[in-house]
Structures are given as C-alpha cells and as structure tokens.
Amino acid sequence: MDPVLNPYSPGAGLRPRELAGRDGEITSFDVLRQRAVRRLTSRSIVMTGLRGVGKTVLLNELADRARRESWIVGKVEADRSQTRRPFRQQVAATLNRALREETGSWEIAGRLRRALATFRSFSLHTDPSGGLAIGIDIEPERGRADTGALDTDLTDLALDLAAAATELGSGVALFIDEMQDLTREELSAICQACHESGQREAQFHVVGAGLPSLPGVLAEARSYAERLFDYLPIGALPVPDASAALTRPAAEADVEWEEAAVDLVVERSAGYPYFLQEFGKAAWDYAPGPAITVDDARAGVQVGTSNLDHGFFRSRWERATPAEREYMRAMSPDGDGPSQSGELARRLRRPPTSVGPTRAGLIHKGLVYAPEHGLIAFTVPGMGSFIDRQPSG
Ligand SMILES: Nc1ncnc2c1ncn2[C@@H]1O[C@H](COP(=O)(O)OP(=O)(O)OP(=O)(O)O)[C@@H](O)[C@H]1O
Ligand SMILES: [Mg+2]
Question: By C-alpha distance, which of 77, 120, 94 is closest to 102?
Fold first, then answer.
C-alpha cells in the first residue's frame, strides 16, 4: 500500500499514531499535576525500561501535557559522550527557553521576579559572560543559586521556581531522558533538589526515564533515593494494547488488519513497541491492500527482522570489541536473560575476575546492564537471538 500514507513510526522518540497501553503512567502524572495545583505533594517519577519500549515518547507526551497547563517545563537528555554539555548548562538552557516563552504572558512581580533573579544566578555559572538572557532585564540574585555547587544551586533554583509557579497556579517539571548516564554528582544534586522540595511542599518535580539500571544508580547517589521517586517500569505492551498499536493507526486510514495477521505480528514482536512499529510498517508497505492479511504480516515480520538485524542489532554488535562479543555470545543461550556472571565466566572458561573489565566495558557502552548483583542482561530485547543468527568467529 502507499508508503506515503504508512501510519507506523519505527525509530527513536518518534511519536506513534497510537500511544498504546500507557494510560496508567499518563494518569499518574495527571494526578501529580492536579495535586500540585492544590498544593499537595507527590513523589517525583522515574520510568525505567529496555531500549525501544517507548520511554522517550512517553516522556514527551507527559511534558506536552504539563506545558499545556502552563507549567514551567524543562527537558534534558543525558548521554555518555565526551561532548555532552554539563547538566547545569543543559538545565539552564532548557529552562531559559521555557521562561522566555512563559514570561511574555506573566506580570513580572513578586515570587516570579525573585525566581528569575535566581535563575540568572544559576545560569551565570554556566556562562560567565553574563548568563542567559531571559528576554527581560533582571539582576542576578545574590546568595541564591550562586555557590557553584550543583546540589545547593539546583535546590535554590527548584525552590524559587516552584514558589513562582505556585503563585501562578502551576508547578515546575524537569524531564530527564537517559537519566542513568548522568554523573553521580548530578544525580545526587537532583535527589537533593527533589528531597528539599518535598519537605518544603514546593512543586518541583523530576520525571526521569532510563534503563532498568537507573534505580540502582540513583540509590548509589543518595541512600534515600528509593523512597524519593515513584518508579514506573515501562515494558512490552499486553496483547490488547499491542493489537491496538497496530490496528488503530490503520483504521484511521480505513485499512483493516485480519485478526490472524494481528496475532502473528503481536506474537513475533512480543509486544515491544519498537518491533511493532517496524513490523507494522513493513507489513503495510508489502501489502497490496485493501486489508493486511496473514501473508502480508508474515512478510512484514521477515522484512522488519532483517531491518532490525541490519540496523538496530548490528550497530550494537559492531560497537563491541572481539572480547565483548565473545562475552555477549556466552549470554545468548539465556535469550533475553538475565545471565549469571559466574556462569558466564564458566562458559568462557575464564576466572570470574578476568572477565570483569569486559563486562564493565559492555555496561559502559550501554549494551548490557546489571539487573541485580551478579546478574547481567541485554539492554535490548531480542539481542540474544540476533547473536545466534551471527556466524561465529
Ligand atoms: N505506547 C506505544 N505504542 C505504540 N508504539 C510505541 C509506543 N511507545 C513507543 N512506541 C514506538 O516505539 C519506538 C521506540 O520508542 P522510544 O524511542 O520512545 O523508546 P525508548 O524506550 O526511548 O528507547 P531508547 O531506550 O532506545 O531510547 C518508536 O518507534 C515509537 O514510535
Ligand atoms: Mg529513548
């Protein structure tokens, strides 16, 4: 059928036509915002899941909802590259944008004036040439957010922005994608800002997303982190939602999926949102129409799998050194895992201590993570079976 009208969106952070199966998470954040305007406190939110489950699109959806209610919304993305801007600089830039957009409609007085002055101090430390211009002339606030220590300054900023937002009938939300890649100091500063805000009933909230290793990384940064956030695991979609992710976008274009075709794609994707999009797109392009049949679905899965092999999986495989590949190959009999580190060393006929650096290298590259002490698993579903399909050596 016409690829121009193809309603599926395989990719990174591409909003699907049908954001299936995430009503629970959306409701949690709706409740948080409704409580916030009543000045009731809630824990901040951390969403965790494997690659391709839909964390980024969900984060964007939540951010849009907060923006529509005139919240002060910032969004940053962490990563491990050398070129990533420091967290402080990213926060200053995103809030600068939010404040520029919002201040046009606000009267600059009271708490807001103070919050903007605090923001100026905070941003001065990222750009000594004068700080970011918020579009209005305001002097930096002395003694607020100007120590240079991220934890103290972020807390000052969070409290002052929250006070201003409360006066304006909203709140502050900072969205952080790939949160597991922040440094310990950055995570610790976020925890402190949330902790202080909670104690002072200030409506500053973090909504983070990251790999399943994130709760552990946060707990290492601050021991109270496990009580600070509501942890929402984001996983594969249950069958009815996975089916809806396929059929609803097609129905909007008056195209029907045969029931058996839906069942096939849902089963072969195991409900993983990214695979659903990839297979759905390939099935649509292959189908002569008017409906999507089992044959089309079968072809879609085949073409989609080959696309995944050549892109999604291969790019990860190629990032690994020969020793790291050998390690991942030892994991592959466990499928989507997890594998036991000790057992892997045995399979590799190596002493456990000697495989430590390889394992650490893979964790650093984001290819595997440790769900628990002594366990290791792939960060992408289906990696084990991809490796089984690769010629050894
Ligand atoms: N709820 C959903 N229903 C249908 N499709 C979805 C859903 N969530 C995400 N998708 C699709 O899945 C793919 C992956 O989404 P996204 O990039 O948000 O995942 P992610 O968890 O952020 O992955 P990564 O960890 O690699 O950043 C996209 O193609 C997106 O359109
Ligand atoms: Mg993402």
Answer: 94
- The CB density around residue 242, as the number of other CB atoms within 10 Å, is 24
Instruction: Let me know: does 117 contact 141? Beta carbons within 8 Å.
Output: yes
Compute, in angstroms, the gap from residue 193 CA to the centroid of ligand 1: 29
Tell me what the mean pLDDT of segment 44-69 comes to.
97
| pLDDT grade for 143, boundaries at 50, 70 and 90 | confident
| 3-class secondary-structure state, position 251 | helix
**Does residue 208 line the site of ligand 1, with CB under 6 A?**
no
pLDDT tens, 314-343?
Answer: 999 999 999 999 999 999 999 988 999 999
Angle between helices 239-252 and 273-286 (to 10 degrees): 40
Which ligand sits closest to the CA of 12?
A: 1
Tell me, what's the pLDDT at 20? Answer: 97
Atom of ligand 1 nearest to the CA of 10: 29
- pLDDT mean across residues, the chain: 93
Tokens read off for 50: 């494997």
Q: Determine what percent of the chain falls in helix, strand and coil, rounding each to the nearest 5.
A: 55, 10, 35
Q: Are strands 44-48 and 204-210 parallel, antiparallel or unpaired?
A: parallel
Two tokens at 192? 């402190």
Q: Is 194 in the pocket of ligand 1 (CB under 6 A)?
A: no
CB of residue 14 inside a 6 A radius of ligand 1? yes
- Would you give the end-to-end CA distance of the chain in angstroms? 41
DSSP label of 309: I
What letter represents residue 386's amino acid? F
Q: Where is average pLDDT lowest: 5-9, 106-110, 175-179, 194-198? A: 106-110
Lowest mean pLDDT among 19-23, 68-72, 112-116: 112-116
pLDDT tens per residue, range 279-290: 999 999 999 989
Query: Any idea which ligand is nearest the CA of 61?
Result: 1
CA quadruple 112, 197, 78, 170: dihedral positive or negative? Answer: negative
Nearest CA among 366, 381, 377, 358 for reference residue 316 = 366
Residue 254 CA, ligand 1 centroid: distance in Å: 24
